[in-house]
Amino acid sequence: MKRHSRPSWTPSIVSDSVHQRLNMYALAASAAGVGMLALAQPSEARIVYTPAHLKIVANNGDIFFDLNHDAINDFDFYAHTARTTSGFSGFLDVAPAQRGNAIWSVQDDDHACAAALPKGVKIGPKRPFDTNLAVMAFASSSAGGKGTAFCPWVGLTKPAYLGLKFVIKGKTHFGWARLGFTNGTTLTGYAYETMPNKPIIAGQTKGPDEISIEEPDASLTMPTPEPASLSRLAMGAPGLSIWRREEPAGTTQ
Asked: Could you tell me the residue range of the domain that residue 88 belongs to?
């Protein structure tokens, strides 16, 4: 069987102008391909928001939370109430759990307090952050009815925000934590900015590229006792007087 021979090709001569046009076309096509490839790459997230429902229960030890879900605790709450023969006292504070982390703080008389921020405030590099423990609320009431209270979270009934600064792999990031006071004191959500040193808005959960952590399954969480003492603490010293009347006798600490 006779095999077919390959056809012979006669090379043609291309003018310089046509050759230049072909080179320009190839360069433009290559650049377009690189651009399309760049657009196809996943973009970096800007804000990571986590909804939460974490009760802050008095006399229950430190309550930690991890802003960026890297299995390293970033901050913790601690609440304490006490009843004595002379009256009642209670406090709620927040502290950095890692070196370099800090809390937006303010001064209330001579006390270093955690600022209670409204929604919409910018949290960023020029804010007054403190790396030490910050009191959120303190209130006390004596047996005679006199009391004292200080720090911005005393008396709050509507949600407010903590301004947070923390470190991820040696770089500074900013975030917020939201607390509500319905049926006790509850951490209801938190978020952080993934770009180092970039400010975040208190309450902001979305950016150009959003990542949201889904609400945890309620069936997987353990119920917590009602922190009645902290809900009274949010009302200040008068609330502690109410708590004293409501608390059964024989529960002194």
From this structure: 47-246
Exposure letters 156-186 (e unless 16+ CB within 10 A, then b)? beebbbbbbbbbbeeebbbbbbbbbbeebbb
In degrees rounded to 5, what are phi and psi of residue 176? -145, 160
Least confident of 64-73, 179-188, 209-218: 209-218
d(CA 16, CA 84): 98
115 within domain boundaries: yes
Q: Is the pLDDT of residue 37 over 60?
A: no
- Number of independent structural domains in the chain: 1
Tell me whether residue 40 is in a domain. Answer: no
Rounded CA-CA distance 135/154 in Å is 10
For residue 224, what pLDDT is reported?
36
Which residues fall within 8 angstroms of residue 149, CB to CB, at 6 or more apart?
137, 138, 139, 140, 155, 236, 237
Give the mean model confidence (pLDDT) for residues 179-192. 92
> For residue 196, which phi and psi values (nearest 5 degrees)?
-55, 140
In-domain check, residue 232: yes
How much is the pLDDT for 24?
52
| Domain membership flag for residue 78 | yes
Q: What is the pTM of this model?
A: 0.68
